Amino acid sequence: AQKITQTQPGMFVQEKEAVTLDCTYDTSDPSYGLFWYKQPSSGEMIFLIYQGSYDQQNATEGRYSLNFQKARKSANLVISASQLGDSAMYFCAMRPLNNNAGNMLTFGGGTRLMVKP
Amino acid sequence: DAMVIQNPRYQVTQFGKPVTLSCSQTLNHNVMYWYQQKSSQAPKLLFHYYDKDFNNEADTPDNFQSRRPNTSFCFLDIRSPGLGDAAMYLCATSRDLAGGNQPQHFGDGTRLSIL
Lengths: 117, 115
What we know:
The complex is a heterodimer. Chain A has strands at 3-5, 10-14, 19-21, 24-26, 32-39, 46-52, 60-61, 64-69, 74-79, 88-96, 106-107, 111-116. Chain A is an all-beta fold. In chain A, strands 2, 5, 6, 10, 11 and 12 form a six-stranded mixed β-sheet that branches. In chain A, 36% of the residues are buried. The mean pLDDT of chain A is 93. Chain B is mostly beta strands. Chain B is built from no helices and eleven strands. Chain B has strands at 4-7, 10-13, 19-25, 31-37, 44-50, 53-56, 64-67, 73-78, 87-94, 105-106, 110-114. In chain B, the strands form two sheets. In chain B, strands 2, 4, 5, 6, 9, 10 and 11 form a seven-stranded mixed β-sheet that branches. A four-stranded antiparallel β-sheet of chain B has the order 1-3-8-7, with no helix packed on it. The N and C termini of chain B lie far apart (33 Å). The A-B interface holds A 31, 33, 35, 37, 42-47, 50, 52, 91, 95-99, 101-105, 107-110 and B 9, 31, 40-43, 45, 48, 50, 88, 90, 92, 94, 96-109, 111.
């Protein structure tokens, strides 16, 4: 069984500053993938970034980077230079990478980020 | 260009009146998923199709059914909607069920209200 915990239900950040959204996970699978999605108020889920458990380097994608600490089972999302359009719900998700497990995602409870002008 | 399209964006139905939500995709992906997302909660997987193989989650109520007539389309049927079924319904696709870094691609969702 897998579990994702996002301990910050809501966060504020000043425009142009960096912000870290926390994600910790628990799994018995030896290899797994971690995903972050953004969900604006309009409802669509937008894929942001992926980190594989065996990746040697932390993933980066534009202003998004993942602070992956495998021993601590954390995969925090860092957004640099926050913009007003970053205001949204952010979900951390994971799934095992063995082919028998399917592509089923386990989601965390989400963090609502609000960017202040 | 939208690759996973859900219609309608907003749906209002009456208590107990059957309703169908639609999802189409232009990605030619093998797997299609339906999620239910209630306010301020994470999406909850209802079921998925791998090609024509239907897989129901153990705790999905019988009230929820799905059809996938071809690769591109998948429908969510709610036979007798109750007030507790009011939610956002999200459709997603993935190329296959294998591992790797494939994300699921989501549609914009259909927000269902029950009167």
